[in-house]
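This part of the workshop introduces the protein records we will be handling. Getting from the letters to the tokens is the skill we practise here. An example says more than a description, so a record of this kind follows:
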Amino acid sequence: MAASPPPLTELGVVGLGTMGGQMARHLLAAGYRVTGRDVEPDRAAAFTALGGTSVSSPAEVAARAGAVVLSLPSVAAFEQVIGGADGLAGGARPGLAVIEASTLPLPVKEQGRQLLAARGAVLLDCPISGTGAQIRGKDVVIYASGDPATLARVRPVLAVFSRAQVDLGAFGNGTKLKLVANLLVAIHNVAAAEALLLAGRAGLDPEQSLAALTSGAGTSRMLEVRGPLMVAGEYGEASMRVATFQKDLDIIAGFAAGLGCPVPTFAAAAQVHAAALAAGHANEDTASVFAVLQQLAGQPGQSPAAPPSVSGDSQATYDDD
């Protein structure tokens, strides 16, 4: 007789940054016992202060939990967490459900799925559509894909920190739709900045314009979420850092190119985001594309801070997308 899957009373979260930290908070508030891992001591300490149990490796998380949520920023972090020394594969029990919530290239996730399957664990592809600000209020959507029985088993977990969970079928469909969604996010973010710049150049009151635009037919979630940051010129408290989003833009570009699909509007928007990165906004919110357009218009906004150091894929810092 096959062993029963581990119970879902004990959960794990690896990557306690902007998204993962909020997921852990919601799970703890819902009464789950949550074990977490992050390489940043401050994040681990904040998680412990909420009532979570912080451990020193992903393998320890896997050994304790019936399901583990991953919220990671890069290919290097994912590969280390799954198959590195003291990775999840080393501590996985048969039946462990691993909920991969990051935005990463699909072939990389598939490699992780196969590695965990060899240990009897199931990797689900469940990226999140929404920002750090939105997940604080559980206003995000899960694009879920993978083994149907495992998805059904973890759906109550996903429902704790999201307003909807869309079952997209076969493994990988979640990432495909997330890339389509982030294409729209990139375009709408720049479109919001462009519209607000034009309103300002026309002599309209910025706050009044934003209120009117968000109540009309031309609104978008990016105008609603990032418009206030643009009007205020405040980008320091990032719900999506420019440097992190650049990783997503690169994945989208490669995905579209691999399908031979033209994405000219996305390509134009991606250039504005790249300009924000080059201008020193790497660790600021992507609303800072507004500052880039202000500079192009000869209307300098708030001066960006000196360019910070940005960890690339060669460093496996745990964070999220």
Q: What stands out?
A: The chain has two domains: 10-171, 175-296. Residues 173-201 form the longest helix (29 residues). Confidence is low (pLDDT under 50) at residues 302-319. The first strand starts at residue 10 and ends at 14.
